[in-house]
Amino acid sequence: MEDCIFCKIVKGEIPSYKIYEDEKIFAFMDIQPINPGHILIIPKKHAKLIAELEDEIVGEIFKVAKKINIALRKSGIKSEGINFFLADGKAAGQEVLHVHLHIVPRYKNDGFGFKFPPNYENKPSKDELEKIAKKIRSAF
Q1: Average pLDDT of the chain?
Q2: What are the residue numbers of the active site?
Q3: Number of CB atoms found within 10 A of residue 129's CB
Q4: Which residues pair with 39 in a beta bridge?
Q5: CATH of domain 5-138
Q6: Cβ distance 83 to 106 under 8 Å?
Q7: Domain regions of the chain by residue span
Q8: For the segment 73-101, what is each residue's pLDDT rounded down to a tens digit?
């Protein structure tokens, strides 16, 4: 896609700090990191949403994520844990409309986290959970 910043990075039109590359996947440093070592993994093929990708590519993204996870833990970069975050759609927080998986090194009191909604502690009933599960199963 012509206007996609990640496609331009893959083509070498915009410089990046490459971590990994193969014929299908590209991984590079996030230029606005949550913590040092924050990396983005993208498919070279443009897709806005994960559902637009072949299963093989989705699997490759996560295989590369595992390799990067291991490398981060060996690197000496401060990391007591690692978050994998993929926002799928604008409402989920996706800012660049090209599938990308964030790999974020984490440590206690780093200031980053998820905020739960006010009624999060109110668990749904078993009937409600089954009703929702049934809807999802029927969509397969």
Answers
A1: 96
A2: 100
A3: 11
A4: 29, 103
A5: 3.30.428.10
A6: yes
A7: 5-138
A8: 999 999 999 999 999 999 999 999 999 99
Tokens describing residue 137 = 């199963």
Instruction: List, for residues 15-71, the tens digit of each pLDDT value.
Output: 999 999 999 999 999 999 999 999 999 999 999 999 999 999 999 999 999 999 999
**Cα-based distances in Å from 10 to 44, 61, 66, 88:** 6, 15, 21, 20
Q: Are 107 and 35 in contact (CB under 8 A)?
A: yes
100 Cβ partners below 8 Å, 6+ apart? 6, 40, 41, 42, 86
Cβ neighbors of 29 (< 8 A, separation 6 or more) are: 16, 17, 19, 38, 39, 40
**pTM of full prediction above 0.85:** yes
